[in-house]
Fold this sequence. Notes:
InterPro entries: DNase_TatD-rel_CS (IPR018228), Metal_Hydrolase (IPR032466), TatD-like (IPR001130). Belongs to the metallo-dependent hydrolases superfamily. TatD-type hydrolase family. This is TatD DNase family protein. This protein is of the alpha/beta class. The chain has one domain (about 10-255): TIM Barrel (Alpha-Beta Barrel), CATH 3.20.20.140. The chain contains nine helices and eight strands. It has helices at about 25-35, 50-60, 80-90, 110-130, 140-150, 165-170, 190-195, 225-240, 240-255, and strands at about 10, 35-45, 65, 95-105, 130-135, 155-160, 175-180, 205. Helix 2 (about 50-60) links the parallel strand 2 and strand 3 (about 65).
Amino acid sequence: xxxxxxxxxxxxxxxxxxxxxxxxxxxxxxxxxxxxxxxxxxxxxxxxxxxxxxxxxxxxxxxxxxxxxxxxxxxxxxxxxxxxxxxxxxxxxxxxxxxxxxxxxxxxxxxxxxxxxxxxxxxxxxxxxxxxxxxxxxxxxxxxxxxxxxxxxxxxxxxxxxxxxxxxxxxxxxxxxxxxxxxxxxxxxxxxxxxxxxxxxxxxxxxxxxxxxxxxxxxxxxxxxxxxxxxxxxxxxxxxxxxxxxxxxxxxxxxxxxxxx
Length: 261
């Protein structure tokens, strides 16, 4: 399947600041624009990473920041970084608080510490009336438990790979579900079924560049330009026009993130 360019695709989760792009970041950005990926949400993962995300979003039009402390980096997070997160939000209001959440896949990530930073950042999102970008690998039920407590503005369950029931619970809370390269693999039966059956109004597109490469890349580096072909793959799976996928998923992102889109 050839990539199909469109004028209005939003990559709701792109780590364009990552070191994997240091050698050719300008070219990566140009390819994304040529493919119609006009907006990218670039989430931070640590307090030390705020500067790289800020520099990326200042350099590249259409790149918008999210500030957060990622659960896979709890070994570098400290309580003081929560205060730094608040300062960062006040200095440059982001489109979301993220990437935050829980990870029960990676061994030796202390759950209590993950939960502490997750809950504290939910409080910050509530305080500043911001949506959240959720890392929820093998932790959907635990993530949902805390979301029900705070009743946030909504957000995205990034790289969603849960059950239909869990998907519906996120949707009830005003969340969108992030779909990217993972569902493009023929053997990804659960993801492909969800991508087919869930309401298109509940889906946003993402790449998680440079990670979660689609089937046609395999173990190679992912990049935002691939979102055009991901959109085409979703359209083919659902039996609809790619422009309908682009239009609706972009509107979903606008509904979530607000006037900045």
